[in-house]
Every structure is written in structure tokens, then in C-alpha cells.
Amino acid sequence: MSKLVEKRTVDMQIIGDWVEPNTRILDLGCGPGVLLDYLVQSKKVSAVGVDLDLTKITACVRRGLAAYQGDMTAFMRTFPDKHFDRVICSRTVHELGDPTGVILEALRVGRTLTVGFVNHGFWKNRIDMLVRGRKLRNPVYTTEWFESRPANPVTIADFEHFCAAKQIRIARRAHLAGDWHSPCNRLPNLFAGYALYDLAR
Amino acid sequence: MTNDIDTLPAAHIADVTPRHLAPGEVGLVAPRDFVYNKPFSFRSGQTIPGFTLRYETYGNLNATRDNAILVCHALSGDHHCAGWHSATDKKPGWWNNLIGPGKAVDTRRFFVVCANVLGGCQGSTGPSSTNPETGRPYGILFPFVTIGDMVRAQKLLLDHLGILELHTVIGGSMGGMLALRFATDFPRFTRRVLAMATTGRESAQAIAFNEVGRQAIMQDPAWNRGDYAKDAGPRVGLAIARMMAHITYVSDASMDRKFGRRKKDTAANDAYTFDVQFEVESYLRHQGQSFINRFDANSYLYITRALDQFDLAQSHGSLEKAFASVEADALVVGFTSDWLFPPEQNRQLALALLRAGKRASYAELSTDLGHDSFLLESEELYGLVRAFLERDQPYVFDYAI
């Protein structure tokens, strides 16, 4: 049997750098468990993922990961304060029906919350909207509006505003350029394609 | 296979190959008896001088003796979970769709063991067995049996078979309770636990249904305080208990799909009688009648009592404490239409395991077949079971981004 090889992405690498070894991790919207598998292998964390989709849960189980099929807020409500060292919300936050509820609950059950999202305010997106006047369609935003799940177009400025309004402390941030690879140090709301935040209360 | 069959056209083979010899089937199987000759003490403090467990095995135990999968049956189930006892059997074992060479529980890879529970009536020692002190059936002199007692007896069987650790213990419904109990009571021995359509303790509603079943049996004059001959007993009461219990195993939607309001042909002439009119009535009566030919009424009382008494949380103070000893990886599976042991009760098990710091997963299948959904022929379920049992080799990450 050939080895199953997976690409590590830069956001995975950054989250991996932020994660302390041998800690307890919760991944909200874990998908097929690629990030969690990476963290288990590289940081020996004890991990659990939550997802709504049975095929994703099956994929996690196949990797030997613990995964829970169900609503993430209902899941977190059954855990005591600070049960997890870190909660991760990677590429999920824009799809949350109640982002405030989820983020505050995640900050209750976790000491730290890591959020990673695509910056909707990226300059190419702005020009695209200005020129075409239609929903974004590119390799990141792949679907027509009528084939998409409802999503909040979150920008870096919006997200930092949210943290200020809810008095959430930003412990760390990382912004990646439009290639989602090289760091972006200048005007991130305009030039960053991807953003990562470490939050605490 | 013989040369004759090899030379037949492919289409022909399907016709002449007996189904029990078809590829992917465990084929003809035979039960065996494990006889334990030392005194066995029940949780209640009562003792019997020894016991027998009837069991079946499929596949082979490997050299390191760690590829064994124990399958635990539900209330009315037995040790015959796969294959056929004879070429003329009407049906294979009760979980034949899941177990076999190349199936989700792959007998080419795993050594599968399934035993009839202590207190049962399919060959294992129970209230219908002969009490050596009196020379007559135990009846209600048989000790009260708990899920923990059933598990301890099966552990003695597994020791006898030379199994050093269980790769996985699998069970649905009551079988799920046994599986969980294996994980809490024999943590070193039990490496994985797969519990489906089960609960850490029955709700009042589930206990209530069991009580109606018991009353149907005990109010039947032929029950005679549990003292009846082997081929006699409370046949009416047991059939009614089964008819009612059967309703709790299915769902409104699945019954409606199967029977609707269809009537028996014979009912067309006269609607104003209490004879069977609807197909569902006829079906339930058939379920009741076939049950009395294979099940002992006293066993039904004992096993439903064991189900009612089962309470993982109470015996340890909380579910988390009950699971503190667990070393196994767990997978709990709930089914959306199961109203006997609903998804919520299954979810609670996985959540408690996680709160106790264990590796546990919860998956939920959307089905409309009710509690018996765990026996469903479903590729989704097979895929999940296979994923949990076999797991891929670790994924290798390419660090060159």
C-alpha cells in the first residue's frame, strides 16, 4: 500500500507553531481531520473535532481521531470552563450562524481560541466587486450564490472590530499575503488573503 | 471449488452456488459450549456451581492473540451472529450483513466471538437450565443477573479461548451496554469499544415498556411463579410481551411504510369482528408466535430486569467517574429515529467519555427504521465500522510547503 501523503499548508504550520505540545485541543468544524491529524502527529496533542457531517466524522475516525457529530455550541455547553487548552476555529467562522455565541462559548471552554479565516477585504476581492458587481467567483469563492451555504463575508477589520467590541484580547495575529504563503506586514485588511488570530479573555 | 463449477458460465454460478458458500460469507458455522466448572458469584451475592456459555467464532486468532472482536447481542439475540447452521436454514445469523470475509467486520482479519449471555436461553445457563440442587429448572430461583455479571462470564470465555486482549467489543442496544461494561470493567483488556443504539441507563419510558412485558408474562396463569415445564409456560404472556416490545424496536414511519393500513384478504368480508384485519396485526401476532418457540419467559424477565438495573452513572457516582478507568478508544453511534434509546442518550455517552479525557467519537445515522436501525444494511454504517476497526496507516505530512 502506498503511503498517504498530505500537503501541509501555511496556516496549518502557523497554528502548529502556536499549539503547545501535549495539550488538549478542540477543533470546531474539523472536516475530515487534516489539521487535527497534523497536530496529533507533530505536537502529540489530545484532540477532538466537531462536525455536522457523517462523512467527515467517518474520515476522522479512519485517521484514529476522536470526532463528534453534532452542533458545536451544544457540544461546548456540556464541558466545564477551560476544559480545553485551545479551541480552533479554522476556515469555519464565516459559516457560523451565531458567531458571537460560538466564539464566546469557545473562550469559556478553552483557554485560547485560534481563529483562521479568508480575508474578504483582500484588494482583489474589492476590485472584483467594484468591476463585476457580482458575488465573488474565484479559486477561493468557488460557488454561485445560489449553490452556497449562507456565509458572512468577514474582513480583517471587521474581525478586529468584533474583538474590540466584545473585549476579547488578541494575543497573537498572523496575516498571509494573497498567496496564503508569505507574510503580509502592510495594510493587512487590503493586502492579506488569509488571517489567523489567537484570542483570550 | 470443484472444476465443474469453474467451467460453468458465470451467470450459472450464481444459481448453483449455495448462498452460504458465496464469497463474502462465513459459510456454515457450528455453536460450541464453554463449560465453567467453578462456582460463579453474581453481583447479587448469589452463587451457582458453574455455568455454560454457548458461543460461535469466525475467523482465526492470530499469533499475538490480539485480533479478537467480541460481538454482544441484544435482549432477544443470541450467539449466532453470522453464517448458517445448515444449508437449509431460512436465515443466517442476526448480524450476517456486517460480519464475514471482506465485510465491515472482516473475518479474514479478525477473530470474531459471539456468546449467548448468562441468564439467556439459547444454550447458555439461565433460568431454564437445570438446577443441580433440585434436578429441575432453576425458574425464579436463578440468581438475579446484571449486565456486569454477563460481562464477567464472557470474560472467562475469552480467557479460555486464549485471547490476550480484545481488539474491539461491539454491540447494539443491550449489546452496547455490555460493550461499555467491558471497557469500564476490563480496561486493559479492551482496546476499542463500539456501542450503537444504546444507553448508559434506560429512561423511565424504556423501563415502563419492559415492565408491561414482564407483567404480561407474570399475569399469565401458566407462568406459575416461574415454575413450568420446558415446552409449556406463559406462551400468551410472552407473545404479548414480544408484540409490544417489537413496536418499540421500529418506528412509526417504518411500520407505515411496511404495512400502512393494508388489510388481510380474509378481512374483506367482515369488518365487525376482532379477528385479524390489518396486516400489522397479523405481523405482530406472527412475531409473538415465533418468539415463544425460541425464547424462555423467565429469561425474558431476568434480562429485562438486568437492562432496567443497568446504570453506569449510579454505580460510580457519575458517568465521567464510571468512565475514568476506560483505556479503550470509543465510538458511539446513534440513530435519528431510535426512540427507545434515542440519539441524545448515545451522545451523552460520548460526551461523558470526552469529559473524562478519553478518546471517544460520536456519529449519528439518519434512518427511519427506529431502534433496530443498528442492524440496517447501510454502506454508511459499514464504512464507519470499518473506519473504526481498521483505520488507515498514519497519514504522512509533506512538510515542504
Write the layout of secondary structure elements.
The complex is a heterodimer of chains A (201) and B (401).
Chain A: E1 5-7, H1 10-18, E2 24-28, H2 34-43, E3 46-51, H3 54-62, E4 66-69, H4 72-77, E5 84-90, H5 99-109, E6 110-118, H6 123-132, H7 156-165, E7 169-176, H8 188-191, E8 194-200
Parallel strand pairs in A: 2-3, 2-5, 3-4, 5-6
Antiparallel strand pairs in A: 6-8, 7-8
Chain B: H1 3-7, H2 10-16, E1 32-36, E2 40-41, E3 47-48, E4 51-58, E5 68-72, E6 99-100, E7 105-106, E8 111-115, E9 130-131, E10 136-137, H3 147-160, E11 166-172, H4 174-185, E12 192-196, H5 204-218, H6 235-249, H7 252-258, H8 279-292, H9 297-309, H10 312-316, H11 319-322, E13 329-335, H12 343-355, E14 360-365, H13 379-390, E15 396-398
Parallel strand pairs in B: 5-8, 5-11, 6-7, 11-12, 12-13, 13-14
Antiparallel strand pairs in B: 1-4, 2-3, 4-8, 9-10
In short:
Chain A is an alpha/beta fold and 201 residues long.
Descriptive key words:
heterodimer; A: 201 residues; alpha/beta; Rossmann fold; seven-stranded mixed beta sheet; 8 helices; globular; B: 401 residues; Rna Polymerase Sigma Factor, Chain: A; eight-stranded mixed beta sheet; 13 helices; 34% helix; disordered N terminus
Structure description:
The complex is a heterodimer of chains A (201) and B (401). Chain A has 201 residues and is an alpha/beta fold. Chain A has one domain (10-119, 153-200): Rossmann fold (3-Layer(aba) Sandwich), CATH 3.40.50.150. Chain A is built from 8 helices and 8 strands, in the order βαβαβαβαβαβααβαβ. Chain A has helices spanning 10-18, 34-43, 54-62, 72-77, 99-109, 123-132, 156-165, 188-191, and strands at residues 5-7, 24-28, 46-51, 66-69, 84-90, 110-118, 169-176, 194-200. Chain A has a 7-stranded mixed beta sheet, sandwiched between helices. In chain A, helix 3 links the parallel strand 3 and strand 4. The longest helix of chain A is centred in the middle third of the chain and has 11 residues, at 99-109. The N and C termini of chain A lie far apart (47 Å). The model of chain A has no long low-confidence stretch (mean pLDDT 94). Chain B has 401 residues and is α/β, with parallel strands linked by helices. Chain B has a domain at 204-309: Orthogonal Bundle (Rna Polymerase Sigma Factor, Chain: A), CATH 1.10.1740.110. Chain B has an 8-stranded mixed beta sheet, with helices on both faces. Chain B has a two-stranded antiparallel ribbon with strand order 2-3. In chain B, strands 6-7 form a two-stranded parallel sheet. In chain B, helix 5 (204-218) runs antiparallel to helix 9 (297-309) and helix 6 (235-249) packs across helix 8. Classes of the chains: A alpha/beta (201), B alpha/beta (401). The interface between A and B is large, with 39 and 32 residues. Strand 1 of chain A pairs parallel with strand 15 (396-398) of chain B, so a sheet runs across the interface.
